[in-house]
């Protein structure tokens, strides 16, 4: 959930090239009003005021960017900030003579829903965060440009290659709707648990690889007046990181695909889902949560964690950049793969990893040539390195960060975790495919963490959300093999 973010809200080898190659916010969603759901869309490319935005195309200018035209950029200002986008815009103006109108905001739906409704959307949008406009809703209403032309265009760095061939394999999947890539999830993200290396050293704790070892640390911490696990209670997306990681690691990829594919026994009747939800609820019953965490926002909970009021917290890899001002200099932020329940099918090193922070080009953008070129340049090494410098995170571009960039401790730990995971990575897609279903599962998790429902009821509600979604004929367009 750069988000994702308030949800923002995606490494083998021994050298930097291989680490970055392996290291390819998500955000929470809110269901828009019916006025938006019913909004229509049409193509773009020419300003309604009569200012033509189309220039001459060439090998170096495949989309025909016109000098002197203007670009309207809206960026979710969450965990990654928006300084990177300002740096991009300055570079774009220098190269193409195109000036940008920049908006950095966390109120994506509030600011953009009226513009989509009026047929006057921005040219390019980082559609992330708690107020993200769900990608599936935009797609169903014809609001999004198919990004095939961008992905099939020549790479800025190597024109002999298509843009799509310069990306880390699998990172386009999260932006697919009905077989088309309509959102570019730009940031390589890992999700899991986080802890302070300093606190671990002071307490003499060892990194837990099993759930029993994890709960033992939570128990020891509680005895010393420290919360075991913090989560961002007002945004249940975050606790679902733990729940869904446990399901995938316990039941393997088949358990993950059963959820994405809306299987009738994905939750109810699933041993992996049952074990996962009971394990998380056990933390609640034993009082291992940081006191008050259920009522806190993401930044409130994360700041208390930075103050050593909890040992662990769930999040994606935007966490470090989001907490720069609140993190003590010697905190030594570290990433931890989800510890294993008994008889898990995936190894401890397995992590949820992939692309996050979806960028979209509205179908009715006024300056489609510049928007598409802007996205093409996002996938250049120059702009990928600019992002790493400004946002302390990695992008989906292979070898996308210049070797001179020094990564912060938390980000470096995600690179190392990705290297250790190798091919043992997984990624749920239902969060992008089915926003309403995702919200219903999150709501169930919120009730569970507050002890208003029990694990069996959570499983029933989560399964009911799947069964409801499965009745939508459009769901047949999304399938994982």
Q: How would you describe what is shown here?
A:
The structure is a single chain. With 481 residues, the protein is an alpha/beta fold. The chain has helices spanning 16-22, 34-37, 83-96, 108-117, 135-140, 148-151, 197-203, 211-223, 237-251, 253-260, 271-285, 298-306, 319-322, 368-378, 381-391, 409-421, 430-433, 435-449, 455-470; strands at residues 70-76, 99-105, 124-126, 176-177, 180-181, 184-196, 227-230, 310-316, 333-336, 351-360, 394-395, 425-426. Strands 1, 2, 3, 6, 7, 8, 9, 10, 11 and 12 form a 10-stranded mixed sheet that branches. Strand 1, helix 3 (83-96) and strand 2 (99-105) form a beta-alpha-beta unit. The chain starts with 15 loop residues before the first helix and ends in an 11-residue tail after the last helix. The model is unreliable at 1-51 (pLDDT under 50).
Q: Indicate the overall shape.
A: globular
Termini gap: 26 Å
Low-confidence stretches: 1-51
Number of helices: 19
Strands, total number: 12
Strand content range: 5-15%
Largest β sheet strand count, sense and barrel closure:
10 strands, mixed
Provide mean pLDDT, rounded: 90
Structural category: alpha/beta
Radius of gyration: 22 Å
Helix content: 25-40%
